[in-house]
Amino acid sequence: MKRKKRLQDLIGWLAPFFGLILVLAIFSSIPEIQDRFLRIANFKSVATQSVIVALGALGMTLIIISGGIDLSAASNLALSGVIVAYAISAGIHPVVALFCGIVTGGLIGFVNGSLITSLRLVPFIVTLGMLGIARGIAKWIAGNQKIDAPLTWVNELMTRNPRPSWLLLAPGVWLMIFLALVMAVVLRYTVFGRHVFAVGSNEAAARLCGIRTNRTKIMIYSIAGLFCGLSGVMQFSRLTVGDPTVAVGLELDIIAAVVIGGGSLSGGEGSILGSMIGVFIMAFLRNGSTMMGWPNYIQEIIIGAIIVVAVSLDQIRHRRER
Amino acid sequence: MKIRTLIPFAIFLCLLVLSCGKSEQSKSHQDETNKLKIAVIPKATTHEFWKAIHAGAVRASRELEVEILWKGPQREDDRAQQIIVVEDFISRGVNGIVLAPLDDRALCRPVQDAVRENIPVVIIDSALQGEDHVSFVATDNYKGGVLAAKKLGELLRGKGDIFLIRYQAGSASTTKREKGFFDTITAEFPEISLLVQDQYAGSTTETAFQRAENLLSRFPEVDGIFCPNESSTFGTLRAIQEAGLAGKIKFVGFDSSVKLVQALRGGHIHGLVLQNPMKMGYLGVKQMVLYLKGQKIEMRIDTGVYLATRENMDDPDIKSLLMPDLSSYLD
Question: What CATH number is attached to the domain comprising B168?
Answer without folding.
Answer: 3.40.50.2300
